[in-house]
Amino acid sequence: MISFGLSPDSLLETFGTIGLFAIVFIESGLLVGFFLPGDSLLFTAGLLASQGELNFPLIVIGCMIFAILGDQVGYSIGRRAGPRVLARERWFTQRRHVARAERFFARRGGHAVLIARFVPIVRTFVPVMAGIVRMPYRKFVGWNVAGGILWGGGVTTLGYVLGETIPSIDRYLLPIIAVIVLLSIIPVIHELRRIDDELEVSADEVPDGSVDEQPNGPPRTS
């Protein structure tokens, strides 16, 4: 199916509710989880709940909680690893690129955290990057909670509602998941193009040595 051939229904059948929560947590913020299914897993979980195979209130609340916790861990990883990553001489750690990333999260960081929830692979890396460039912690937490509720609760509920209202909807699972992913990506591509245009204009204003080193400490609260 989607996500490198990992079948959401087989994963849920094998690992159950605990496996669902574990995958949501890992895929939300741990870099090793970028290949795991996200949207399709939540939708399938809701669909199975509509058929009485999973506890709907439990999986909705659990998916929201573990999605939020996963992003929080991802942010912490980025925050702690940031100084070591930036110390290495790589093309993406050049001062100019780091400055653009910081300006991006300063301007649109909240929207990025929210929107990334609905984009496979991207949602795994955004919280880590937010930590690396030290996006203000309170701002990150607010958008993370909003995104976790909308994604973890919304996609799961969509699967449940459609499963309750459309007979034999499991026959159309693949097309439905494909449409969900497509509808998620189209507005994101448009938004990213607009953001990139803005950052291209402002990039020339940032000299190569303009990014100050920041010590590794507790998250800022403002």
Low-pLDDT runs of 5+ residues are 1-5, 206-222
Range of helix content: over 70%
Domain module tally: 1
Tally of separate helices? 7
Q: Label the structural class.
A: mainly alpha
Distance between the amino and carboxyl termini: 43 Å
Largest beta-sheet characterization = none
Q: Please count the beta strands (DSSP E, at least 2 residues each).
A: 0
Q: What general form does the structure show?
A: globular
| Helix/strand order, N-terminal first | HHHHHHH
Q: From the alpha-carbon coordinates, what is the Rg to the nearest angstrom?
A: 19 Å
Give the overall pLDDT as a whole number.
77
Strand content: under 5%
Written overview of the protein:
This protein is mainly alpha-helical and 222 residues long. It has one domain (8-203). The protein has seven helices and no strands. The protein has helices at residues 8-29, 39-50, 56-87, 95-116, 122-132, 137-165, 173-203. It is globular and about 50 Å long.
List the helices and strands and how they pair.
Elements: H1 8-29, H2 39-50, H3 56-87, H4 95-116, H5 122-132, H6 137-165, H7 173-203
Helix pairs in contact: 1-2, 1-3, 1-5, 2-3, 2-6, 2-7, 3-5, 3-6, 4-5, 4-6, 4-7
